[in-house]
Amino acid sequence: MAGLPSPEPSSPPRELLAAGYRQAREITWKYGTTYFWGTALLSPQQRCHVYAVYALCRLADDIVDAPGATVGDTSATRAGLTQFAAQVDRAVEGGPTQDALLAAIGHTIRHTNIEKECLTRFFDAMALDLSQHTYRTWEDLLAYMEGSAAVVGEMMLPVLRPMAPGAREPARALGFAFQLTNFLRDVGEDLERGRVYIPQEDLERFDADPARREVTAQWRELMAFEIARNRRLYAQADTGIPLLPTRSAQCVATARALYSQILDRIEASDYDVFSQRVRVPTWRKALTAASA
Known about the structure:
This protein is 68% helix and 0% strand. By secondary structure, it is an all-alpha fold. The model has no long low-confidence stretch (mean pLDDT 92).
């Protein structure tokens, strides 16, 4: 695979790593096209690492978001998540594995010096999805997103190679912003999993009930409030872009532009996040990346 990160002396065979990074690329292309188009501006090695981090997050998400994962007895799902976390830990420690994707994930975390503490916070947040389905306040939701979103921004920083330590908080803000955008877009899908990520205090304040799946005046007011909050997070994240090298800055700016367009499309659809999933067309993603 062109641009494969240099293997370490104790790394898995180069052929296994190449296969793993190809798998990570395919997962990013299939499920994370916004990230995929953003990474087009990075060096080949950096692209490989972004693919690996995205694949790690996606595989964990797939475990806790599987059909029936949070219905009734969740012990099997929890065991599957624990097993996956242990496999990742072994791969990070350089333990032998024949799983190409795990080999690539472990290699990326070692090669870029992503802190293992980030993985602990991330998997703890994934496990929380199996027991907690609503959040009372915005602060409660932020506490969950600390491990499911902010930490992803932190994991991306060693890949993007910031030029100043001040990039950490904006990177975390971008993680928060991306995930809140997902929550607002995926209200209908999350309801099917028994989850509501919009704070209960906000629903009560605007007298809005997502379970009704109706776009009412109250629902519009609620969504306008949450979108304004979301855009403040994006504005905070923007302060970190000048602290990145040119390619990394272009990558982040592109991903940020693409993801924030989802909010524009929610507004254009009259805040209807129930009847269909709001999407940014692939041609627009490609055009945005090309413009950058």
